[in-house]
Amino acid sequence: MSAPLVLDAAAVAAACPPADAVAAITAALDGGLDPAVDLPRQAVPLEAGQLLLMPSDGGGGLKHAGIKVATVAPGNPERGLPRVQGSYLLLDAATLGVVAVLDGIALTTLRTPAVSVAAVLRRLLAGPTPLRVAVLGSGPQAHGHVATLAGALAGHRELASVDQLVRDPARWSSVSGPGSRHARPAGSGPIDGARLVRLGTTESDDALRAADVVVCATSAREPLFDADLIAGTAVVVAVGSHEPDARELPAGLLGRATVVVEDRAAALREAGDVVLAIADGALRAEDLVPMRDVVTGAVRPDPARPLVFKSTGMSWEDLVVAEAVLAGGR
């Protein structure tokens, strides 16, 4: 048996551009993959954070199986290190032999925005005007979502502007400047071409009111803004948490939006934005729309209401994108 292919972060990025990852997610769902039958992830508490085990066989419909072993260390950003680290083992579905080992951070950074954009792409393609984007956060997912939006919409719709809303814009010059205490984590900081805006100011409120797309990619545990700041036709993506007691979005927004999730059971188990909105009486479990139904066109969300996609990350997504990476890497 030949040695497994080893793909580091650069190789993962080179093998599968963001638009290809979106296409892979879309094709898998169009082809019948059902997120509801995915294997649940296991979270193991550690002193410094969490160990996450994310296995999948794609419901038996893919050529491979796989598992991501990831760690979440909340204290790492202050050390200049990634909050999330890990590796992905891609296995032959029949023999379970290791086919490839992929950098887990790069795979996560690629697949998370690919899933988000695949979930809302029909809505975004329907509009004729350039998009105004507001991104809350400064980590790899903030960067990844902008790059994936631009890649997936290329030739169809441009990004008119990007406002990056952060708690302390001045922090980034001090983190990376001469004499700084810590190195800046890779893939974090200001987004190229974006306007940095301090969150919670009149300027950031105006940016949110004007935004066609709002991306929340933070470690916040409480809502980041008031519900009435979001336009009635806006698309909102929230990817920052996978815990039932943490949320980035206010319940009032979910109450007036079409809320799309990867899978109802997974969302009710892990998505604090959803769980807490239901507890607040703003949302019902039966209101949640599975992502597969939106991607395939079985459900067409009302264009006059906000469209919210809440992602917690599921194992099938890593597997689908890992297969796409393998095809490109070969």
From TrEMBL:
Residues 171-194 are annotated as: Disordered. SUPFAM superfamilies: NAD(P)-binding Rossmann-fold domains. InterPro entries: NAD(P)-bd_dom_sf, ODC_Mu_crystall, ODC_N. It comes from the Bacteria. This is Ornithine cyclodeaminase family protein. The lineage of its organism: Bacteria, Bacillati, Actinomycetota, Actinomycetes, Micrococcales.
